[in-house]
Design a protein that fits this description.
mainly beta
C-alpha cells in the first residue's frame, strides 16, 4: 500500500494590481513607480523627460512628489 501523500496542486498567484500611469491615466502592464504612489508608463517616458524627472546620468529618475531617486536598472 502506498502511503505517500497526494501531490499538492499549485495555487494560482493572485492577480497583481498595477499602478495606473499618472500622466496618461491608463492602467498598463508595467509602470515605473515610487513607494509614494507616483507612477508612469514607458509610453509616457518622453513626457517625463520634458518635465525634468530624469537624472543627469539618464540611468535614474527622481520622483516629483517625494524627490526620491530611483534607478531604471532595478525596475
Amino acid at each position: 500500500m502506498n502511503t505517500d501523500p497526494l501531490p499538492t496542486r499549485r495555487r494560482k498567484s493572485p492577480i497583481k494590481a498595477f499602478h495606473p500611469c499618472l500622466i496618461c491615466q491608463e492602467v498598463k502592464g508595467f509602470t515605473w513607480s515610487c513607494d509614494c504612489g507616483f507612477a508612469f508608463c514607458t509610453d509616457c517616458l518622453g513626457r517625463v523627460r520634458e518635465i525634468g524627472v530624469i537624472g543627469a546620468s539618464h540611468r535614474t529618475w527622481i520622483c516629483p512628489d517625494c524627490e526620491r531617486e530611483h534607478d531604471f536598472a532595478k525596475g
